[in-house]
Amino acid sequence: MTRLGESVARASALLSADLSSDDTVRELLKETRERRYLDLTDLSAKEQAKLIASRTVEVLPGVEKLAERIEERRAAGQGLHVKLGIDPTATDVHLGHAVPLIILSRFQRLGHDVTLIIGDFTAKIGDPSGRTAERPPLTDDDIAHNLATYREQVRPFFDFEKVSFRQNSEWLAPYTFPELLGLLAQVPASQLLQREDFRNRLAAGSGLTMTELLYPIAQGLDSVALACDVELGGSDQLLNLQMGRKLMELRGQRPQLVVTMPLIEGTDGTGAKMSKSKGNYVGLSAPADDVFGKIMSVPDRLMEPYLKAWTEWTDEEVALALGRVADRSLHPMDLKKVLAGEVVSALYGLDAAMAARAGFVAQFSKKSFADVESLPVVDAAEHGALTVAAVLTTALEFTPSASAARRLAKQNALRLVVEGASGQSTHVLAEADAVRPLAEVLAEKLAGDEGTAYLKAGRKLAQITGRQAGPA
Fold it and tell me: Cα(77)–Cα(71) distance, rounded to whole angstroms?
């Protein structure tokens, strides 16, 4: 049995046990955390290709071709040359950015040579994939600062001591205009305009710059320069990655294989991609308790894609856990606690994961909101003229925007709760309530309710003070 097979057997036994038990969960997290560093070189070429493909959207031109090239390189005593390019365009890194690095780490542990290309040249253009407007260009100082921050934040998911670093300014900066013209003469403009985001922007009357059109060419030249076997990228990068195949063919090279990964949905459950601008992300530098709490706040339907994106679980293990949820032998909340523990364990270690788990249970297993310490407070007398959405966005900073607050209401996740001597009463706020003044909503919804009032947005909770309670 392979080393991975042995680990899966041990983990599967734990996944079949009582996952409400701290002891069981600790053993499971210990097993799966150690798997992040497991030597996978004893897997056959077909097993390697299957493991990679199980976490991807596409492998082009096919999984069989990937297995064949692995076998071919292995026969020559070599590993594949795999590359991933990153443009250091931001300082805040979130879990969505970790997905390709986790796949790159697997290639690394499978015995292949990996190169991380730092797009210091292309960052000055800005990848237009999925964007509705041109990205502002960065300076050299911006790029150096962002790169240092990026590397430090994603370190838990990737062994930087075993990777080759290259900067694409090495080959792109000396590229001459005659060389570029000669290359462009062989690339149809229609191919560059196939991108859906380009077509949408043109249809909306937004312009495109020549630098944006040339971005796929620049990225493709990275593959030419390194003569790669495999390039990784998000599913929105497919046309860029295929351009690498085309340019390699034009230069008489063997075209690289393309491996695309899913774009991870954000924590708010709206279907939007995880991003800082939407506020639906889990930052890699966030405190352990915050990471755990954000994962616990996601809809149950996101457990499967999140387990596949950020853990080392195999398909069989994911199916085992979800099967137990389906047959009601495992509560979804218990599985979600394991998922949250997996993420915290990767970032901060096993002890931090178990501490965050204990802290979450202590806070959210309270029968009364009054037992929860250090709740934020909103004064209805001071903020009553603001809409509920504005209170959530500005006064409490629970949501990044008014539209996000309305989405919570649309999902029945926005509520007023009153705790009195006779217990709790809950009032679900509709989307229309989110755009009404807080004082007006309180007067209507809580008329006659005595006790302490709370505003609940998803799993975030605030006490409401200064309201006028009606007669009992």
Answer: 10
Alpha helices in 313-436 (DSSP H): 315-326, 332-348, 350-364, 380-383, 388-390, 402-410
**118 DSSP β-pair partners:** 86, 167
pLDDT, position 424: 75
Query: Residue 470 pLDDT more than 70?
Result: no
The C-alpha angle with vertex 37 and arms to 31 and 43, in degrees rounded to 5, equals: 95
pLDDT at 133 over 60: no
Q: What span, in angstroms and rounded, lies between the C-alpha atoms of 411 and 431?
A: 9
Q: Collapsing DSSP states into helix, strand and coil, what is residue 94?
A: strand
Q: Give Cβ neighbours of residue 384 (< 8 Å, ≥ 6 apart).
A: 437, 438, 439, 442, 466
SS3 label, residue 84 = strand
Provide the 8-state DSSP code for 392: I
Give the pairing type, strands 164-167 and 81-86. unpaired
Residue 464 CB neighbour total at 10 angstroms: 22
Gap between the Cα atoms of 442 and 416, Å rounded:
8
The answer to whether residue 427 scores a pLDDT higher than 80 is: yes
- CA gyration radius, the chain: 25
Alpha-carbon span 266 to 337, nearest angstrom? 18
- pLDDT tens sequence across 320-366: 999 999 999 999 999 999 999 999 999 999 999 999 999 888 776 66
- Check the CA dihedral 268-273-274-276 and report its sign: negative
Place of tokens 């996740």: 413
Nearest to 420 by CA among 381, 446, 392: 446
Cβ atoms of 259 and 103 within 8 Å: the answer is yes
Region 387-401: what's the mean pLDDT?
Answer: 90
Partners of residue 462 on adjacent β-strands? 455
Please state the pTM of the whole predicted model.
Answer: 0.75
Tell me the helix, strand and coil percentages in the chain, rounded to 5.
50, 15, 35
Q: Is the peptide bond before 61 cis (omega within 30 degrees of 0)?
A: yes
Separation of alpha carbons 159 and 101, rounded Å: 10
Q: Tell me, what's the pLDDT at 135?
A: 52
Sheet harboring 164-167: ordered strands across?
Answer: 58-60, 257-261, 230-234, 81-86, 113-118, 164-167
Res. 127: pLDDT tops 70: no
Q: How high is the pLDDT of residue 132?
A: 42
